[in-house]
Amino acid sequence: MTTVPTVETEVLIVGSGPAGASAALALSTYGVPNVMVTRYSRLADTPRAHITNQRTMEVLRDLGVEEDVIAQATPQHLMGNTVFCTALAGEELGRLRSWGNEPLVQAAHELASPTRMCDMPQHLMEPVLVNAAIARGSQLRFGTEYLSHEQDADGVTATVRDRLRGDTYTIRAKYLIGADGGRSKVAEDAGLPMGGQMGVAGSINIVFDADLTKYVAHRPATLYWVLAPGATVGGIGAGLVRCVRTWNEWLIVWGYDVNAGPPDLTEEYALSVVRKLIGDDEIPVTIKSSSAWTVNEMYAETYSNGRVFCAGDACHRHPPSNGLGSNTSLQDSYNLAWKLKLVLDGTASPSLLDTYSDERAPVGKQVVTRANQSIGETAPVFEALGGLAPQTPEQLWRNIAARKDTTEEAEGQRARLREAIAFKAYEFNAHGVELNQRYASAAIVPDGTPDPGFARDPELHFQPSTRPGARLPHAWITSGTRNLSTLDLGGNGRFTLITGIGGEPWTEAARILGKEFGLEITTAVIGPGQEYEDPYGDWARLREIGDSGALLVRPDNHVAFRRQGATGDVTAALGDALRQTLGRG
């Protein structure tokens, strides 16, 4: 019997979903050899995750695939409403302007980022990420099942099985990334401690084709929530009709009693649910697939063990509420990839990799908590209609009809319903949850200033800041005839030092220290007559430093170091900051 030789690489990635594919793309972009394996014979064939928020679009912008995503995604303005109804063809109960389409939130989106959120279903997103990763050097092996791993002082040896041939072989890597989803075997084998619980409720996905233009084109939306008898059973709190492609490809989410187990997912059953939520039996429907899944509330307390790191659903398992799943997954990988690159090329100490868990685990916990909380926040909508207490369907319809009465009681019911729908902004307009991530770790150098906290609700509202640990604020600046974002100054796997007029000592220090550390540090001077100018004055209002001050920005566009001016020994100050950030202190 022929022995299959060990495959060798720098980084082995298990899983080709959003976390795995983006890890491969980022690593290959940075020139790090990597092998990605997936037990499946193809990429995602169902829509699954879809909301793509501004922070993720910024990551995709930096990785050079933003335009590829925009070309295929549903644009933000067609995501615009969240509709609550008794069925698509039934009675509308109210709408919420969502996903940045409420006028004040839209303005906040415009101010916050050079990017726009969009709806990019996973079966379209994965090929964009994977194709770009392969084009840049990633090696992908389909039909390759991860079985186990062993690690030692120098690397990780993973045993995998070729599902086509049936034989096993080993892959030797310096580091292993487990991006193998909510039932991650890599996370289990690595012994990552988990909080929360799995299987708290049950849901069914039904993918189907139907031309629903006449019911939706006048109120374009990503999500249509159906409040009908049985909608509160398990699942995500209501029946959901989700637009996959405008306006003829759809996905329905319907709950089931997780204790009783999922129903028999026959085509007849799937069609009955579709008919119930559409409310028009004459519309031609083609069922494409149906599957059962469970709502989870679980998060890893640490994301790594030695040379093994996990990302995405392997670390944070939660319902699709708020549309945070794939976004958090891509951002996990973006945080990890540049650190692996600098450790592998000897620029940074391996201790830099400890900051991955320190920075991303709190984000994962927040996301799991927020997503599950959003399910509970659907209940007041039902409560306003008297739809939570056990009752007959006929009684629910009477309750819904009663809100149109001229009585004082009906007026109160209408007010409660409006308030309940408006409160769902925490699910559909949580701009702060998406952008307010501020890291605290050894790779962040505090500047000694007190943390002012947030002036407004940090879940709903984004608050830009240049405090170390915060994402670099976006402002439109110019370079000659070119308009660009301050975020475009950074990224590309490099550190960036941003200063202004009078900040020449900082740029000289960056040049000297870049050579000393073997580190590429891009410098950007912003001011009148400089390479970059601030014609609107937006950057001056956001930077929170003086003209001669400096910001050291990491490859992921988070601020590592900040100083107000150029006083003192700036070379020593910047050198100390780099040593701390790179773990070389």
TrEMBL record:
Keywords: FAD, Flavoprotein, Monooxygenase, Oxidoreductase. It comes from the Bacteria. Residues 8-371 form the FAD-binding domain. It holds the Pfam family Rng_hyd_C. InterPro entries: FAD-bd, FAD/NAD-bd_sf, RIFMO-like. One of its GO terms (molecular function) is oxidoreductase activity, acting on paired donors, with incorporation or reduction of molecular oxygen, NAD(P)H as one donor, and incorporation of one atom of oxygen. This is 2,4-dichlorophenol 6-monooxygenase.
